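Input (structure):
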């Protein structure tokens, strides 16, 4: 498999061939400004780099850190150490990966799983870093007869390896933040209710009344369990829903109403702040 030396060239190859492509980049290519595309992306830092922004969430990172970016998630490298940054970027066409998923093995998991405490980043151990680079080098060495089959085999082994690490980290994170007893049941109920009623008027008072608890108690247990406030959580879920609706072809106005925003100007401001571009531009990108 050819290793590109341009991120844009790798993305173009990925989309045109509806498979995957990799780029090995150095400080000779200027990082792209905030952008979105319809590929999955795996971003691995070899050296340099400092801060990454994904859907309005900042991540500090070092060599050996790896990011999993879902399609249509806005992202860009926001800070670089002295302009020097070596990295591997793997672009993956979602439908290509999905065809290899089974009931026992979901290779999309590292791109689609986002709980409140665990986001897009993994910090690989020294041995895991070596193994990741081993797969990349193995891909770049494939040529001649059977290259397509060998590329596919190595790619699937790499994705299985990464998802296994991702699952282990998710399980560890959930164990550290797990709530037991009444609080756990209450938070599960609140999250479920919010997720199923995004179009409703989900004020703190309305939620407290629905669950027969005080607003102060509600805010306290929610922040303790999730690490964020109710209002921020509701807004984030509504923005995620809006992105999905815009991708499906709904108008900006309809998406605003269907996500529960009572005021278009607030929707425009919240969406642009979270995603990095306006809802109208996002709809154009994902059309």
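Output (sequence):
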């Amino acid at each position: 498999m050819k290793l590109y030396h341009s991120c844009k060239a790798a993305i173009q190859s990925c989309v045109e061939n509806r498979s995957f492509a990799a780029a090995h980049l150095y400080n000779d290519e200027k990082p792209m400004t905030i952008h979105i595309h319809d590929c999955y992306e795996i971003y691995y830092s070899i050296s340099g780099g400092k801060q990454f922004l994904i859907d309005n969430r900042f991540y500090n990172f070092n060599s050996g850190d790896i990011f999993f970016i879902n399609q249509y998630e806005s992202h860009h490298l926001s800070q670089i150490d002295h302009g020097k940054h070596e990295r591997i970027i793997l672009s993956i066409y979602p439908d290509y990966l999905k065809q290899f998923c089974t009931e026992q093995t979901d290779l999309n998991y590292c791109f689609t799983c986002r709980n409140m405490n665990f986001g897009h980043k993994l910090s690989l151990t020294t041995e895991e870093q070596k193994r990741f680079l081993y797969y990349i080098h193995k891909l770049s060495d494939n040529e001649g007869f059977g290259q397509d089959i060998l590329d596919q085999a190595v790619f699937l082994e790499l994705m299985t390896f990464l998802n296994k690490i991702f699952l282990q980290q998710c399980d560890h994170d959930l164990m550290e933040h797990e709530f037991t007893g009444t609080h756990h049941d209450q938070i599960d109920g609140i999250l479920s209710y919010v997720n199923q009623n995004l179009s409703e008027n989900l004020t703190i008072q309305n939620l407290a009344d629905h669950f027969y608890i005080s607003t102060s108690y509600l805010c306290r247990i929610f922040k303790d369990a999730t690490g964020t406030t109710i209002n921020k959580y509701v807004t984030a879920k509504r923005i995620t829903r809006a992105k999905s609706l815009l991708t499906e072809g709904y108008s900006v106005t309809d998406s605003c109403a269907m996500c529960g925003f009572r005021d278009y100007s607030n929707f425009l401001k919240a969406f642009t702040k979270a995603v990095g571009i306006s809802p109208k531009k996002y709809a154009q990108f994902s059309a």
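Notes: The chain has twelve helices and nine strands. The chain has a mean pLDDT of 85.
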